[in-house]
Amino acid sequence: MSKISINLNSGEIDKNPIVLGIDLGTTNSLIAQVNPKTKEAEVVNLSGGSTPSIVHIENGQATVGLDAKKYLISQPENTVFSIKRLLGRSFKEIYNYQSYFPYQILDNDEKDLVQVKVDSSYYNPVQLSSFILKDLKRQAESYLNGEVSKVVITVPAYFNDAQRQATRDAGRLAGFDVLRIINEPTAASLSFGVGLDPNENTCIAVYDLGGGTFDVSILHINQGIFEILSTHGNTFLGGDDFDKALCDFWSKTYSLANDGRLRLQAEKAKIALNQEENYTSEYQEKIIKISRKAFNRLVDPIIEKTLKSFSVAIKNAEISESELSQILLVGGSTKSYRVKEKIAEKFPKIQINDTINPDKAVALGAAIEADILAGNRTDLLLLDITPLSLGLETLGGLMDVLIPRNSKIPIKSSRQYTTSKDGQSGLEINVFQGERDLVSNNRHLGSFTLSGIPAMPAGIPKIEVSFFLDANGLLQVQAKELRTGVEQNIHIKPRYGLTEEDIQHMLNNSIKFANNDVEQRSFIEADNEAKLNLNTVEKIRNQNPEFFDAQINTSLKHLLKSIKQAQHKKDTHKLLDLVEQLNHLIEPIGNKIMAKELKKKVK
Ligand code: ADP
Ligand code: MG
Questions:
Q1: Given the CA of residue 28, which atom of ligand 1 is nearest to it?
Q2: How confident is the model at residue 201 (pLDDT cuts 50, 70, 90)?
Q3: Who lines ligand 1 at CB under 6 A?
Q4: Residue 382: its pLDDT value, please?
């Protein structure tokens, strides 16, 4: 179904509706569009600048942005910042960071998302984020003088399903039609024009240093496909730490209260030092000073941490430094002259690209992706890639991968399964994410049961399980019995997801335990085979007792005993050997039964 939209200013019918791009940041947020006339990406609000991602709530009334920022100091308990850190998170995940948040975070139910207490009411992070998004909507609508609804919203590359889902929900709650959730580094690349040429094949790094978070991503871009080779960073490191370091220094040097007011002074000094060698100001009847040199000494250890992450990211991407064609600078803190200096010092051979305003790069890139989705650029198709494999549990707890890691999304994959018992009427489908051979070492995403399978002998039903991974990285699983058409499906919605450390940890373990996993897998396969064969022998003996003489029965008894022992000791070799002996023993009987059946037919 398509809709026609009419431009209220010009009265013209727009062929393709405008789709906007949103950078929902931890510190600042921004909304942008590709101008239909100039074809250039631009910010669509009256100020032209970012909106602080801060929400102040008083008497049930929410204020957002600069208007809310002024309450950070006077009413910290009613003023929420950095809500993005809580989005899609469980209490368990943020437990250790509680002291970071001056507002009260509640744990109502361990399995549910956290709640924040503001102005004696409770809000969840999705609601609080939606207030910011609603404000962006209002700004864009007054700038464009018309209603806006379709958007693309960016998230960090390491955001998991739950965090992406929560972002999408916040968008919906704000009244948007969220067409797609895209990765921030992918959006940033687009704003720098990287990836817009369908013939391009290159590797780049996106270094994103914001207010409270840092991440660096290594991307391989080939024919419009953005593959995130690796991402590394620190979710508690950013420009705020520069302010804090200076604030601590001043507070000690001049015996000043180390509070929010001094913090704001420190941020001012930090920005001024990009232009000047020295900063001097009057503060509470004292002259406070800082030189560039002294400031460098304070922030260098912080910047060095980001550079270490950078090296790890390159290593994890399994590329060499020389393969990187450029480093794109993104995030407000890359405006600090010292950050550029240190990156250039560390990577003297790689081109540093700071040609796009780092405050706006992500939002402008989101607008470009939005424009492509709106159908305004038919030469391009942007695809992302899934970071971990998706599969389901099969006999013996083995992981059967349907969508391997690094598959381009959207993607659909199907495979046929059957029942293992006669007359089995239901099949439980357990969906997992991860790289290990055993599902118990992977992450459980969800389960459902395909029920109502009509009674049939084991192995006869044909059950097709399909995985659909959409362009946002969200999974839908369907199971269908092909003979009868009975079907069932679920949208996988984990309540809380993986941290970026989890993802890294799971990938590392898949390498570390690869041998171990292979051993376990071969044992389980041998064990499954043994069980299957024993069942078959049991069935044959029940139906054809006349072929089992005392000698065979004794041999069988001994074999069964040995098989049990091998199963118990998890001795794969022995087990396979015994299964072969069992088959050998039964083979002549099988032949006799075949002959009997044939005779019946001939008669
Ligand atoms: P986020 O992505 O976390 O929302 P931003 O990319 O908007 O954050 O970055 C905000 C940070 O950038 C703040 O710490 C702010 O002090 C810093 N910043 C903004 N302008 C400058 C500047 N000119 N020089 C140095 N730091 C700056
Ligand atoms: Mg950002």
A1: 4
A2: very high
A3: 25-28, 50, 210-213, 238-240, 267, 270-271, 274, 331-333, 335-336, 359
A4: 56
> How many domains are contained in the chain?
4
CB < 8 Å & 24+ apart, contacts of 142-146? 142/46, 143/44, 143/45, 143/46, 144/18, 144/33, 144/44, 145/8, 145/9, 146/7, 146/8, 146/9
The whole domain housing 222 covers 194-355
Catalytic residue ranges: 23, 84, 184, 208
Q: Is 348 found in the same domain as 211?
A: yes
Count Cβ atoms below 10 Å from residue 550 Cβ, excluding itself.
7
Tokens of 193: 């024009």
Q: Are residues 448 and 328 in the same domain?
A: no
Report the CATH number that the domain containing residue 421 is assigned in CATH: 2.60.34.10
Q: Which residues of 230-265 are buried (b: 16+ CB within 10 A; e: fewer)?
A: bbbbbbebbbbbbbbbbbebbbeeeebeeeeebbeb
Q: Greatest CA separation found in the chain?
A: 115
What angle (nearest 5°) sits at the alpha carbon of residue 80, between those of residues 74 and 85? 145
Residue 497: predicted pLDDT: 44
Shared domain check, 371 and 405: no
Which DSSP string do the residues of 242-295 spell out, in sequence order? HHHHHHHHHHHHTT---SHHHHHHHHHHHHHTTT-SEEEEEETTEEEEEEHHHH
The answer to whether residue 385 sits within a structural domain is no
Alpha carbon of 358 to ligand 1 centroid (Å): 9
The model's pLDDT over 337-366, given as tens digits with 9 standing for 90+, comes to 999 999 999 999 999 999 999 999 999 999
pLDDT tops 50 at residue 461? yes
CA distances from 523 to 454, 512, 513, 516 (A): 32, 19, 15, 11
- 151 in any annotated domain: yes
* First-to-final CA distance of the chain: 64
Decide the pairing of beta strands 324-330 and 351-353. Answer: parallel
Residue 384 has pLDDT above 80, yes or no: no
Strands 286-291 and 351-353: unpaired
- For position 553, which CATH number holds? 1.20.1270
State how far the alpha carbon of 134 is from the alpha carbons of 48, 63, 175, 184, in Å.
17, 11, 7, 20
Does the structure show a pLDDT above 70 at 407?
yes
Helix axes 514-543 and 550-569, enclosed angle (nearest 10): 160
Closest ligand relative to 211 C-alpha: 1
Instruction: Say if 523 falls within a structural domain.
Output: yes
Give the global pTM.
0.69
Cβ neighbours of residue 415 closer than 8 Å, sequence gap 6 or more: 400, 402, 464, 465
Summarised one tens digit per residue, pLDDT across range 412-421 is 899 999 888 8
So what's the pLDDT on residue 576?
87
The alpha carbon of residue 259 and the mean position of all alpha carbons in its chain are separated, in whole angstroms, by 36
Are 409 and 470 within 8 A, CB to CB? yes
Instruction: Enumerate residues 6+ apart whose C-beta is below 8 A from 272.
Output: 279
Q: Does residue 313 fall inside a structural domain?
A: yes
> How far apart are the CA of 360 and the centre of ligand 2, in A?
9
What's the 162 CA to ligand 1 centre distance in angstroms? 27
pLDDT bin (cut points 50, 70, 90) of residue 35 is very high
